[in-house]
Design goal:
Helix content is 40%, strand content 18%. It is an alpha/beta fold. The chain folds into 2 domains: 4-201, inorganic pyrophosphatase (n-terminal core), CATH 3.90.1640; 207-323, Roll (Diaminopimelate Epimerase, Chain A, domain 1). The chain is globular, with a radius of gyration of 20 Å.
């Protein structure tokens, strides 16, 4: 159990907070940011939510008050100089802030990390990390629930619900249990509509995203062992479809959706690097596989980002390494 009294004590001692999350944020990252922002408002604190990436179009409905800003070094330089604390959500390596990394390394204020991923880098003075939680959003829910001075309300219930729902694969992953459902039941008391929330996140994509998915599905291959399936998206494919990087979120799951396959892999060629996403079934630890290539994550969901490598060179190595986990 995390020491939430200690966390509240840290928050109460500071006055101006920068809130941030990882590059290409998902609903857990964004929902946790918005919910912690509401907590800071309840504590009478000043804050700015600043991310290195744009908010994906299908998640903008979570930010009803337009609190989330995209990082601009000229605009936000003064914020980094004047604010006295930074809260990092849903990440455990500072390099996942990408364009903001150098500013955070020079940041003189207190750093606070709230996360649920394995093997944190320990770049922050205060780490509130619980790998047993389904999501960072669930940690924020627990924070609200254990402190009498904080209140769960309609404003924070929506982003927390979206965070938990998406990171549990719509309540089907292994960390979905009776305790989690009881927490979600409390969120639903605030007139949330699960059907509409799911629709906005997963069923209102741009047509270009569906075109990209079709191209990606065309690349699906399976190894000789029949236990590993993988798909590939290049920059050329991305441009051809007219899609954007955040549209790729969730594609890796299609690589896993084949009978007998134990590990699904997505190779995604970015402008400056190669992103590799891993998914697995049962107790196959793809976080260990990701660690072999400088990444990490959870037991069944992990990833890495490699620089100065060519897809055709690294792909065979990753597939070869994957076989021993099956």
């Amino acid at each position: 159990m995390l020491d939430f009294k200690k966390l509240i004590n840290v928050l109460e001692k500071k006055n101006k907070f920068i809130i941030t999350c990882h590059v290409n944020p998902d609903a857990d990252a964004l929902g946790s940011e918005l919910a912690i922002g509401d907590i800071l408002e309840q504590l009478g604190k000043e804050f700015r939510i600043i991310n290195t990436s744009n908010t994906p179009y299908n998640l903008k409905f979570l930010d009803v008050d337009n609190k989330i800003e995209r990082f601009d070094k000229e605009i936000h330089k003064k914020v980094f100089e004047e604010f006295d604390a930074a809260i990092f959500l849903d990440l455990n390596f500072i390099n996942r802030t990408v364009r903001m990394e150098e500013f955070f390394k020079d940041f003189k204020g207190t750093k606070i990390c709230i996360d649920h991923h394995t093997k944190p880098e320990n770049f922050a003075e205060y780490n509130f990390i619980d790998e047993s939680e389904s999501s960072t959003g669930e940690i924020i829910f627990d924070l609200l629930s254990c402190c009498d001075s904080l209140k769960l309300n309609k404003k924070n219930a929506l982003p927390i619900y979206a965070a938990i729902m998406t990171d549990t694969g719509s309540f089907r992953f292994s960390k979905t249990n009776s305790a989690l459902h009881k927490k979600v039941a409390k969120l639903l008391k605030y007139d949330l509509n699960p059907e509409k929330i799911y629709d906005k996140i997963y069923e209102q994509y741009e047509f270009s995203r569906n075109k990209l998915l079709g191209e990606a599905l065309h690349t699906i291959s399976i190894t000789e062992s029949k236990k590993i399936s993988y798909m590939t998206i290049t920059q050329e494919t991305l441009k051809k479809s007219g899609a954007i990087e955040s549209d790729v979120d969730g594609f890796v799951n299609f690589a896993l959706a084949t009978k007998g396959v134990k590990i699904g892999i997505l190779f995604f060629e970015l402008k400056d690097s190669l992103k590799i996403s891993f998914r697995s079934k049962d107790d196959i630890p793809v976080n260990k596989l990701a660690e072999e290539f400088g990444g990490g994550g959870h037991l069944n969901a992990a990833g890495t980002r490699l620089f100065n490598v060519k897809l055709q060179d690294i792909q065979p190595k990753v597939l070869f390494a994957s076989e021993k986990y099956c």
